[in-house]
Design brief:
alpha+beta; single chain; 5 helices; 10 strands; 6-stranded antiparallel beta sheet; about 20% strand; 4-stranded antiparallel beta sheet; about 280 residues
């Protein structure tokens, strides 16, 4: 009799457990069905949100949660594939546009000394400004813009460029490179300023109302001159090109990150399916 009672109690416990598990599965299945509908509609982020809700509200629905995790992985794969394809198409379009834009600029690169070339406006080509004191704008292939101050005259050893328009002005006294030499009895001095570290010089030229006066100082002498309108236009043009290249590089980073994530998810899926197949064979 005691044995029968024990068997009955065990049977009752199993029945209650199975019943409770089945009850736990019902609301979980409803959420999973909704998640599948979102997946089929291409709303992958909603799919993942519903699966998160399923895991939080139905912790005992083990079977459905396992199915949901498989769906989550598929949603993540599709999401990254979609992201990659989108950013790749954006990059293709922007790269085509860049080729057109670059036809208006001159490319400069000394293969012996430079890893990265740079673009300038033709009117600011050094061969056309051998004897000029002027500001030249340039942008390298990575999208970084530069402002270079060229001075020709008697020695002043300057490091500061101040640009004024009416009562407003900007200045920078920290060039990241500088150089001076004499050629044909004339002193040549050059200071290079990187955009973002130029004290706002390039933005001031591009977005302020001229005319502009440039003053060179910080050494043994000073020199001032009027900024040419062609140089103002060159700065504006270079900043636009710099922004375009920078944005293109950002899209390339998004594309590459999405591609790496997509490939990793596919590899993990392959490993998971391989392990599952091995487990089934071992069970058989």
């Amino acid at each position: 009799m005691k044995i029968l009672k024990g068997l009955f109690a065990g049977f009752l416990a199993i029945t209650l457990f199975v019943s409770c598990e089945e009850k736990a599965e019902d609301p979980a299945k409803e959420l999973l069905d909704k998640a599948r509908s979102e997946f089929e509609a291409g709303r992958y982020s909603n799919t993942r949100l519903l699966i998160d809700s399923l895991s939080a509200t139905c912790p005992n629905a083990y079977k459905t949660r396992r199915e949901a995790e498989v769906l989550r992985r598929e949603a993540m794969i599709k999401e990254k594939e979609r992201d990659y394809l989108y950013y790749d198409s954006v990059c293709v379009g922007m790269e085509a546009r860049l080729k057109v834009l670059l036809s208006d600029y001159k490319f400069n690169k000394n293969d012996r000394y430079q890893d990265t070339g740079y673009y300038t406006v033709p009117s600011q080509d050094l061969s056309k400004n051998v004897n000029n004191t002027f500001l030249r704008a340039s942008v390298n292939e990575d999208g970084t813009a530069f402002l270079t101050s060229f001075y020709r005259g008697s020695k002043i050893e300057y490091n500061t460029v101040k640009i004024s328009a009416g009562e407003s002005f900007m200045l920078c006294d920290k060039p990241f490179t500088s150089n001076s030499y004499r050629s044909n009895g004339v002193q040549n001095e050059r200071c290079d300023y990187r955009y973002g570290e130029d004290g706002g010089l390039m933005d001031f030229i591009a977005f302020s109302q001229g005319p502009f006066t440039v003053e060179l100082s910080g050494g043994s002498g000073k020199h001032s001159y009027k900024l040419r309108e062609s140089d103002v236009i060159a700065v504006q043009s270079i900043l636009k090109l710099s922004n375009f290249i920078t944005e293109l590089n950002r899209m390339r980073e998004y594309r590459d990150d999405a591609h790496v994530s997509w490939r990793i998810l596919l590899k993990n899926k392959e490993i998971s399916e391989s392990n599952a197949a091995g487990s089934e064979q071992a069970t058989e």
